[in-house]
């Protein structure tokens, strides 16, 4: 009887240690790897032309209206950079640039250059946010859109901390993570994104990367483009024309 | 609602700190578990006999803190009702998803160890008690009233094995909490391989400190006499781990300063303009340098027991503040600068509300309530031998 008990405890102990180790090593191993992206193709890309943008803010307003973005939160916004001759850099984005910008407060002679940079979710090919979401609420669609399932999101904000671009916010209505979807609901119906549609300067372009006749594929081929914060290794799918080194 | 003070250019979604004081409290309470468990392991595994008076209490303390380690998260989550999805439908690429498993394995080990440590006591009470209490103790004994010498020997063996498993588990749990922050490459103030090591070491020192304070308080307000040798041993271990902890924190800062990456400019501005007091003065100077020196004297110099206890106790309190400040400076500090690397924001916790200071304080006090209730059922300290000594 005593022998039996000892044997049982021994076996139970080893099973416990074994299963504990297995779970720990398994979760650790998979945590280190990137999310498995089998079946996902990054078919779409977004191109922002900072040399064309006029900073009217129509894109921000259209996005808010289309996606019911709550006040003081932004799925997209526009930044204005002013590089001064003395070497200083001034950046502003009043209310995300939604209502345009006030004239610059500097004398024309003091300004080296000034330009606008629209920002939005980069729908990265290796998205940090998808990697860190503990419940898989942030995921990549088969076409390569990075989306949030608001019925699954627990609202832990880990993705917001992980996003190097601060493209995410906590939606005060749904209490879940929220961000630009590249207007997935419109794209599925064969339309384009709300911001692209209203841009009067053609500074925003969106389309398939495998459509040789499309503007995005052509620009990707013809122009030298940059991405934001390439050092993070997230491989953004939003490309910029004329990006300055001062832009983060 | 406190007004947010901003300066420079922030990305528009960076104005609010997403992680509140609740996320500061979570690693703080989790950390207290580690030290408490380490002390019990010192006795059970490494045979440090001096800490015997607190060995049993340390396990109960670890258990009590562990019970409430996750509650601050529930108060923070946008959808707390979905919290268990992290365990039931986890995504293993997330550092966060492993926590449920690691936490539960650890809780199971601690619970099992407590049961084996208290088994003979439970059996004795099950035999002596009357009425419903007898039933309670019988249930706690899981119906097994076998306490012959051989069974107790086996219990002792199992306790040793559990304590031994507990050490790597504790290291994984607390290193892991550091990994949650250290693995975020998007944040230059968090992203560091040293982060898990710092969290682990600060967890250990805060745990030993809270045990020292609790032991002193319990002895002062009950009829127990303080065991000076036990406290001396705890001061010794506290000093040793604190040296390592402060060294790692110092090295982390030094590396940032020396490497002077592009991001360091805004991080250093954040430290001086937003955390000048809590980081440089509180965490690095008053609550690090002072206890390091004083504890050195306490451990190395011959002095009266009462002086040693008083000085050591003061150091333990300072170290508890140091670790809390460290958690604050890491977690809140990491959110006070924008990822635009051009602007700073501010965070002042609310007093009331779901994520307010009052709730935080209540949550912090709950483990002590658990300890109190536990003490009503089973004694935290072995009273008899102590009173005999007097």
Question: What does this molecule look like?
Answer:
The complex is a heterodimer of chains A (248) and B (390). Chain A has 248 residues and is α+β, with helices and mostly antiparallel strands. Chain A has two domains: 1-28; 41-77 and 117-248, Alpha-Beta Plaits (2-Layer Sandwich). Chain A has helices at 2-32, 58-67, 128-132, 158-162, 184-187, 194-198, 215-222; strands spanning 44-49, 76-84, 89-92, 111-120, 138-140, 146-148, 169-170, 177-178, 204-208, 238-241. Chain A has a three-stranded mixed beta sheet, covered by helices on one side. Chain A has a three-stranded antiparallel beta sheet with strand order 3-2-4, with helices on one face. In chain A, a hairpin with a 5-residue loop joins strand 5 (138-140) and strand 6 (146-148). The model of chain A has no long low-confidence stretch (mean pLDDT 91). Helix content of chain B is 71%, strand content 2%. Chain B is mainly α and 390 residues long. Chain B has one domain: Up-down Bundle (Formate dehydrogenase/DMSO reductase fold). In chain B, helix 2 (52-68) crosses helix 13 (357-377). At the A-B interface, helix 1, helix 3, helix 4 and strand 7 of A face helix 5 and helix 7 of B.
């Amino acid at each position: 009887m005593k022998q039996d008990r000892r044997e049982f405890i021994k076996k139970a102990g080893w099973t416990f240690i074994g299963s504990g180790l297995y779970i720990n090593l398994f979760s650790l191993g998979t945590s280190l790897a990137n999310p498995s992206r089998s079946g996902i193709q990054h078919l779409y890309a977004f191109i922002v032309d900072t040399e064309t943008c006029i900073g009217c803010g129509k894109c921000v307003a259209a996005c808010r209206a289309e996606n019911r973005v709550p006040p003081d939160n932004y799925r997209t916004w526009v930044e204005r950079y002013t590089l001064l001759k003395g070497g200083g850099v001034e950046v502003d984005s009043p209310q995300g640039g939604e209502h345009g910008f006030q004239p610059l407060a500097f004398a024309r002679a003091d300004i080296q250059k000034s330009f606008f940079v629209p920002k939005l979710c980069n729908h990265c090919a290796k998205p940090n946010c998808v990697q860190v979401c503990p419940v898989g609420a942030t995921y990549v669609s088969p076409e390569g859109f990075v989306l949030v399932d608001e019925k699954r999101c627990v609202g832990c904000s880990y993705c917001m901390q992980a996003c190097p671009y601060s493209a995410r916010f906590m939606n005060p209505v749904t209490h879940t993570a929220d961000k630009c979807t590249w207007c997935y609901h419109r794209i599925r119906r064969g339309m384009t994104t709300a911001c692209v549609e209203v841009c009067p300067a053609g500074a925003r372009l969106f389309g398939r990367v495998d459509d040789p006749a499309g503007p995005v594929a052509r620009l990707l081929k013809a122009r030298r483009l940059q991405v934001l914060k390439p050092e993070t290794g997230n491989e953004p799918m939003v490309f910029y024309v004329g990006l300055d080194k001062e832009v983060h | 609602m406190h007004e947010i003070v901003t300066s420079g250019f922030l990305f528009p979604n960076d104005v609010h700190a997403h992680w509140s004081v609740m996320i500061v409290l979570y690693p703080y309470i989790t950390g207290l578990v580690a030290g408490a468990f380490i002390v019990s392991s010192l006795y059970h595994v490494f045979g440090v006999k001096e800490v015997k008076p607190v060995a049993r209490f340390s396990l109960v303390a670890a258990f009590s803190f562990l019970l409430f380690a996750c509650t601050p998260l529930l108060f923070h989550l946008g959808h707390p009702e979905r919290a268990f999805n992290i365990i039931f439908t986890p995504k293993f690429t997330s550092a966060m998803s492993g926590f449920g498993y690691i936490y539960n394995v650890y809780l199971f080990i601690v619970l099992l160890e407590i049961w084996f440590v208290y088994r003979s006591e439970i059996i004795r009470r099950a035999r002596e008690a009357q009425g419903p209490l007898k039933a309670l103790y019988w249930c706690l004994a899981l119906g097994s009233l076998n306490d012959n010498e051989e069974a107790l020997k086996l219990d002792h063996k199992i306790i040793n094995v559990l304590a031994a498993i507990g050490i790597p588990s504790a290291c994984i749990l607390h290193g892991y909490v550091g990994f949650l922050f250290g693995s975020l490459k998007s944040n230059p103030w968090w992203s560091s391989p040293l982060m898990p090591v710092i969290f682990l070491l600060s967890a250990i020192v805060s745990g030993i400190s809270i045990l020292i304070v609790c032991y002193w308080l319990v002895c002062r307000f009950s009829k127990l006499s303080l065991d000076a040798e036990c406290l001396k041993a705890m001061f010794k271990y506290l000093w040793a781990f604190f040296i390592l902890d402060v060294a790692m924190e110092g090295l982390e800062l030094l590396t940032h300063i020396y490497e002077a990456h592009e991001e360091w400019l805004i991080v250093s501005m954040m430290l001086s303009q937003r955390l000048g007091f809590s980081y440089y003065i509180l965490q690095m100077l008053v609550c690090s340098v002072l206890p390091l020196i004083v504890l050195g004297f306490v451990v190395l110099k011959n002095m009266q027991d009462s002086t040693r206890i008083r000085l050591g106790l003061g150091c333990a309190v300072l170290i508890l503040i140091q670790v809390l400040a460290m958690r604050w400076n890491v977690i809140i500090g990491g959110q006070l600068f924008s990822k635009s690397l051009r602007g700073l924001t501010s965070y002042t916790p609310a007093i009331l509300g779901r994520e307010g200071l009052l709730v935080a304080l209540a949550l912090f006090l709950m483990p002590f309530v658990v300890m109190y209730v536990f003490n009503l059922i089973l004694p935290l300290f072995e009273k008899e031998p102590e009173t005999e000594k007097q």
